[in-house]
Amino acid sequence: MIINGVAIDATFAEAFPMKATRAIITAQNEKWAMISAQTMTGFATSVIACGCEAGIEGALASSETPDGRPGVSVMIFAMGGKGLAKQLETRAGQCVLTSPTSALFSGIDGGTRIPLGKNLRYFGDGFQVAKLIDGKRYWRIPVMDGEFLTEATTGQVDAVGGGNFLVLAQSQPQALTACEAAIEAMRKIPNVIMPFPGGIVRSGSKVGSKYKALNASTNDAFCPTLKGMSKTELSADIESVMEIVIDGLTKEDIDKAMRVGIQAVCDLGAENGIKRISAGNYGGKLGPFHFHLQEIMA
Amino acid sequence: MSDLTFTLKHRPDQRVDMSPLVCQKLANMEPAEIAALTLQNGKSKSRVDELFSITGSDAQNMVIKNSFGKLDFIGRGLDGGSIKIEGDAGAYLGLGMKSGAIIVSGNVEIFAGCEMKNGYLEIAGNAGDFLGAALPGNKMGMKGGTILVRSNAGERAGDHMRRGNILIEGNAGDYCGSRMTAGTIAVMGQTGRYLGFAMRRGTLLLWNQPVLSASFNDCGAHTLSFLPILFSSFKKLNSRFAEASAVFNRVQRYAGDMSEMGRGEVLVKITQTGF
Question: Is B265 an 8 Å CB contact of chain A?
């Protein structure tokens, strides 16, 4: 399959079941809601070492938030429910509770309920106040700038993590430009996050390593500097590869995000140095979710 | 199916215990069985059809017509369904109700919504003393749900209240929110003396400055972000509380009752906007 001169490999991305949650952060203005959200979703690129994968789903207008202030929706993904709950609570406590003017609300009504502000309330040292409004429990925690309002729980749902595609380009600037265009388009899709820096990862990994202590190492088959010394996947004209990893609430959400992302890359086309689109997988043996590139783009 | 309607034929001299006539108890009964039920009427018992003419069959939607202030225990333990009362209601309206709705077009006597656990109670007229309170000797009053009084409430509204909302469009009598453990009481009109007497936790939300006991401490003026969420939960009500003009988030906060636990609060609306 070739789109605008870009070859779409007959391969697939392999993804795994994860647990996900969403929280809504509001503040006096979007600037401070975004600062809080960026802090909360920092150091959360990969479960390999961060404990979770987190990202900003999007900004919310005042009319879309529970307290009528500007807000930001964030999503956190982890391999298990316990880990997710711990990450959510730690991040909420250190990054949202501390952020000026912030308030924190549940972003998923159903699902298994996990603590959002339920335990943060103890920061109130006995001065915290509970309010049950329309069946939802809120905690009002006195803080130095006024009151931190948080919903007690949010929803945890089954999700999919690790959807991905690789952009193979003639040069590094061209790969980056194409990935930036993809991320811009993909950020408009709800229910997904791209957890790596700016949504893009330049150090895709393979499973295992020659070093026993490591369970992942550089994806040498896609490293352009190793073209002559490794079993390479790259042709002579490819000088740079970048990857976009997608976590989503459902397989369909990731399908949609991959489609618009790949389309945005292909719109730049061969004339902008984009040669191929590929994907990372483990032979289909590890993850139950397979995203076949050519099927997605058909 | 039309609403199951009880129309009072005449006003009995003695008080009538209406607790057998509640939606869930009548759900699978034939009209003749309902007519044959007996109600305590003073010291004697009366068949339902001696006191009421009965029409309709939908027990989930009951109507009591020509009601007056001696019909006690209407909707006692109501667990789903609705009861519409045309006229006044007696004491203990909706005592311990668990869910469903009771709507009264007139006034109600003492202990309305007493120890109610959930559901919705709307009173178009005045409510007597001990609205949403605990029965004498009990420690726990209303535990959930919403009571809306579209006129005035008597003394001791929300006594021993544990959770839920009491919304009063008019005035509240003395000892409003006394011995509250938690929950919210909102009063648009005036409040009487001894507001929040011995309250432990909970919120008294007021539109007018009250006369406060010395055991309430001024915590200053604040913009509280939970208030817009609270007001938005009132939007579905047939009430002045649902109007956009009722919404505010700037309040003077008083903490009390310091002679008790002191974790309660009286929030008084501030009309000028904050910074």
Answer: yes
Contact flag B263-A126 (C-beta cutoff 8 Å): yes
In angstroms, the CA B37 to CA B78 distance is: 18
Q: pLDDT for A195-246, tens place per residue?
A: 999 999 999 998 889 999 998 899 999 999 999 888 999 999 999 999 999 9
Residue B1: exposure state from Cβ atoms within 10 A (0-12, 13-18, ≥19): exposed
E strands, chain A, in order:
2-3, 6-8, 12-26, 53-60, 71-78, 103-106, 112-115, 129-133, 136-143, 146-151, 153-169, 192-193, 205-207, 216-218, 240-248, 274-278, 289-292
With CB atoms and an 8 Å threshold, state whether B144 touches A68.
no
- CB-based burial of residue A179 (10 Å sphere; 0-12 exposed, 13-18 middle, 19+ buried)? buried
pLDDT given at position A254: 97
The answer to whether the CB atoms of B144 and A132 lie below 8 A apart is: yes
Distance between CA atoms of B54 and B56, rounded to whole angstroms?
7
Identify from A131, A139, A144 which residue to disrupt to test chain B contact, counting B C-beta atoms within 10 A and taking the largest count.
A131
Q: Choose from B118, B167, B226, B267 for mutation: most chain A CBs within 10 A.
A: B226
| Residues of A with Cβ-Cβ distance to B223 under 8 angstroms | 146
Substitution target in B117, B143, B229 with the highest count of A β-carbons within 10 Å is B229
Q: Which of residues 92 through 151 in chain A touch B, CB cutoff 8 A?
A: 103, 126-127, 129-134, 138, 140, 146-147, 149
Asked if residues A21 and A74 have their Cβ atoms less than 8 Å apart, the reply is: no
Region A18-157: CATH code: 3.30.70.520
Annotated domain spans of chain A: 2-14+160-296, 18-157
Consecutive 10-residue runs of chain B (275 residues): their mean pLDDT?
93 96 93 94 95 94 96 97 97 97 98 97 98 96 97 97 97 97 97 97 97 96 94 94 92 96 96 63
| DSSP H/E element including B231 | helix B226-232
What residue ranges do the domains of chain B occupy? 110-269
Query: Among candidates B180, B178, B138, B174, which has minimal Cα distance to B154?
Result: B174
CATH annotation of A2-14+160-296: 3.30.70.520
pLDDT in the model for residue B273:
60
Cα gap B69→A184, rounded to integer Å: 67
Separation between Cα atoms, residue A199 and residue A193, nearest integer Å = 8
Structure tokens at B69: 């202030």
The closest CB to that of B225, out of A126, A133, A147, belongs to: A147
**What are the pLDDT digits (tens) for A262-274?**
999 999 999 999 9
Q: What is the ipTM of this complex?
A: 0.91
Asked if A66 and B229 come within 8 Å (Cβ–Cβ), the reply is: yes
